Amino acid sequence: MCRLSAITASEYFSPMENIHALDTMKEGHDGSGLGLVLKDLGGEFEPLKEHPILSGICSHAGLEVLNDYMFSRGFREIYFWEPHVDPGFLPETGPRDHYFAKVYSYPKEFKNAPREEKEALLLDVRLRLRAMGEPDESIFVFSFYPDVISLKEVGDPMEVARYFRLEKEDSLKAKIIFAQGRQNTNYSIYLYACHPFFLQGYCTMTNGENTAFVPIREFLSGRGFPGYTGYNSDSEVFTHILHYTQRQLGYPLRYYKDVITPLKEEEMEGRRDREALKLVKKSLRPLCIDGPNCTIGFTPDGSVFMVQDAKKLRPGVVGGYPGKYALMSEECGLDRAIPDRDKKMDFSPMKYDMAVVSPRAKEMKAWTQLSA
Amino acid sequence: MDPAERLDNNHELPLKEFPYIIQWREDRCTRCGRCTAVCPVNAIEPTVRVQRKVTSEGPTPMPVASRSLEHVVSQVEDIDRYCTGCATCELVCPNDAIRPEYNPQHKFLFFKNQGGGAYRRGGRRNDPSPSTVDQLKFVRISMLTDPALDAGRHEFRIRTYLGRNLPAEELPVEVKRGRLARTDDRFVPPVREIYPIRIGSMSVGALSPHMWEGLAMGVAYLNEVEGMPVVMCTGEGGVPPRLLKSRFAKYFILQIASGYFGWDEIVHAIPEMTEDPAGIEIKYGQGAKPGDGGLLMAYKVLRHIAKIRGVPEFVDLASPPTHQTKYSIEEAVAKMIQSMSMAWGFRVPVYPKISGTTTAQAVLNNAVRNPYAAALCIDGEDGGTGAAYNVSMDKMGHPIASNIRDCYLDLVKQGKQNELPLIAAGGMGKSGALAANAAAMIMLGASAVDSGKYMMQATAQCFGDEYNRCNLCNTGRCPRGITTQDPRLYRRLDPDKVAERVVDVFKVADMELRKIFAPMGRSTELPIGMSDGLGCSDREIAERLQIKHVV
């Protein structure tokens, strides 16, 4: 089962904090991959927050294709970052030519466009690049969005971190970092199957198996939104459900829990919004999951949350103090990430719960579905 | 002098041509006469024959021949009184002296057209080979990171929706102070939460009063005592008025078909109804007999049936093949759904039922575009009937598996698979595996399944099978008392026992569904369209249904 390590803080910190926490949970993953998503970037990226960052991996030939394409779409590169890899920790997939995070300025005609238009443009570019590079695996692009970097590679998380020399890397810091140590489940080991998944400001990583993957994928694919694609992992749908319920339908965050683990009608009686909830349950019936899953996610405003399935309850724990919280799939990861916290205040969400850490790690709130 | 044809018996049929041959044991028979009295088709009769006996009584062999008249039970060689193999004779024989035996070399259909009348019968398609649905297996067992659910310990909710679900984008909800709130600016179609196995449409008239009552009592018990929202469709034949006006009406789906039998009575009862029915099914076709309307033979139209249906006694009640008041099915679907919805104030789900066909997707798309259509029920070629032409039953219709799968995938393409539920009927439980068949159809894309024939077999020991055993439903001489209006016959059937068996059947199906869904990791919602869980060892079936080929 994958191990999950999320940290949110009011100050910038290094992804190594997440990776060390993952390392303590090593027994639970088979080291088939590491995925990192960083939001609210510090270091060299701090002054570039308004500009979209394209993160990915490509070959020499892929890079040329990518550069030409970005130029043709009117994007101008204003900053470039790549890890200085240590060949001593070469991943099992062999050397790759380029890992990159490229910061661009928007095309002229989009400079003053509304946010939705810019987001649609970025998504379109990312999907086209993906389509161009996927057949020969010359280009992998994981995210293209302002103030967000994704880094993924197959292999043991600690080894991958050493390969990227993340311990010595000062430029890569952020206030929200998600890391996942991958346990391959039903689908082949593949870079696009590596969590966390990101779409237009929404990000999740999940462990466990999503047994209802196929009907959920079919439902999302039918929503007419171009970003609902990919699905190399059964967990990718969790990101898209979050995006769909929050961004597309405009529901508040707590309804994410009501969509993936809906209450029975008789359980809704304690809810003031039960009439609306009954309708939502029926209309979004195919998005119900049965777990076992622990899902950790963030939303564009910087809220970070954890929810479980309503059945077998994959372990998950949230702890910390105002200014720094960690959301981990295991207690030992939390101990490694924030050893000086008050452990009595640790919270393990159960079947009806949703733990939400507010933006800038101000506080942690627990919601229960039964009396929202 | 007899003509030559009489002497050589050339125009008679030997028993070898008959589908069932009676095995009678002279040494065991006590000549009590029960078998000949009970035979529904008079295929056996008591008769006498001259028998030559050789006896020897002295101390030394002194054979003496004598002739005597013996009483025997013999099978008649009249094709109109053929033994149907029902085995009621065997059932009543106190001494195991008689039983029918299937004759695989029979030539029944060559001769069952005497007088120019095509063979009509009840039952379903006479094909004992396993149906496509019966060949499907559940192959994706959660093992690695996801241990299987526990069918006994975990909470399961095996429910489905009958009714049209609005897409989330069109729901009358808004965000108010951080919460969703319902607004009243949009019509929300009625949706019922029901059990995903329903009792399919079988009419009052086709079924005996005791059978219908037994089913109805079982359904009421399941709802009110067991908490299982099982619903039952009335079929085309009206509803007993007391039931219609009772609080139990909510467990019944009223069917309107092309004969409109009983609907004058139903419409007049509406003002006195205290509960809305579970739904209204508009029948356009039936899997057992595509292109034919309902058919109730005159000898089943006794006074009580005539009253419920609003017709004279002892007349053939043949519903036309189509709704005669409508110009086309498109118009019928649109107008009938709307008018039936209106009759109950748009509070009741109304949906069409069609026979399985390659044109099902055309009807589907019609229903998808009609905001008042609550579902689409498709009845496959293995559906049963109380009366139809043999050729319709055996040769007409479309297998349900690929029909439902195509329709579901069509809905997926349109992104509307959660809006219009598909209900699969026809052959569910044909080999006895009701829950497995239901689960497989659900994973192919159905939201619910209907079962009719299986219910008669499991709850009232209907003799019928795919070797054309019994299948006398159309004659009114059902030896089990299931499909007859003759009180001497239906008194054999105890409605309480039928009701008990209905409850047994659903409780077992519920447990078996859990045993199927648990290892596949589905418990709070039905695995509708979870086709990655299905496999089949037949490559062509697997490819056609877009499921895994496993060997």
Summarize the structure.
Chain A is an alpha+beta fold. Chain A contains nine helices and 16 strands. Chain B has helices at 4-7, 34-38, 88-92, 108-111, 209-224, 241-244, 263-269, 303-309, 329-343, 360-368, 390-395, 400-414, 434-444, 453-460, 487-490, 495-517, 539-545, and strands spanning 20-24, 44-55, 64-75, 98-102, 120-123, 136-138, 160-163, 173-176, 179-182, 191-194, 197-199, 232-233, 252-256, 279-283, 295-296, 317-318, 350-355, 376-379, 385-389, 422-425, 448-451, 534-536, 548-549.
Q: What this model shows, in words?
A:
The complex is a heterodimer of chains A (372) and B (551). Chain A is α+β, with helices and mostly antiparallel strands and 372 residues long. Chain A has one domain (3-371): Glutamine Phosphoribosylpyrophosphate, subunit 1, domain 1, CATH 3.60.20.10. Helix content of chain A is 25%, strand content 28%. Chain A is built from nine helices and 16 strands. Chain A has helices spanning 16-24, 60-72, 115-133, 157-163, 213-221, 236-248, 255-260, 274-283, 331-337; strands spanning 3-13, 34-41, 52-58, 76-81, 98-105, 139-146, 148-153, 174-181, 197-199, 202-208, 293-298, 304-308, 317-321, 324-328, 353-357, 364-368. In chain A, the strands form three sheets. In chain A, strands 7-2-8-1-14-13 form a six-stranded antiparallel β-sheet, with helices on one face. A six-stranded antiparallel β-sheet of chain A has the order 9-10-11-12-15-16, with helices on one face. Chain A has a four-stranded antiparallel β-sheet with strand order 4-5-3-6, covered by helices on one side. The longest helix of chain A has 19 residues, at 115-133. The mean pLDDT of chain A is 91. Chain B has two domains: 13-54 and 66-117, 2-Layer Sandwich (Alpha-Beta Plaits); 134-165 and 173-549, Alpha-Beta Barrel (TIM Barrel), CATH 3.20.20. The radius of gyration of chain B is 27 Å and the shape is globular. An eight-stranded parallel β-sheet of chain B has the order 11-21-20-18-17-14-13-12. The longest helix of chain B is centred in the C-terminal third of the chain and has 23 residues, at 495-517. The mean pLDDT of chain B is 93. Chain B has 551 residues and is of the alpha/beta class. Chains A and B meet through helix 5 and helix 8 of A and strand 9 and helix 12 of B.
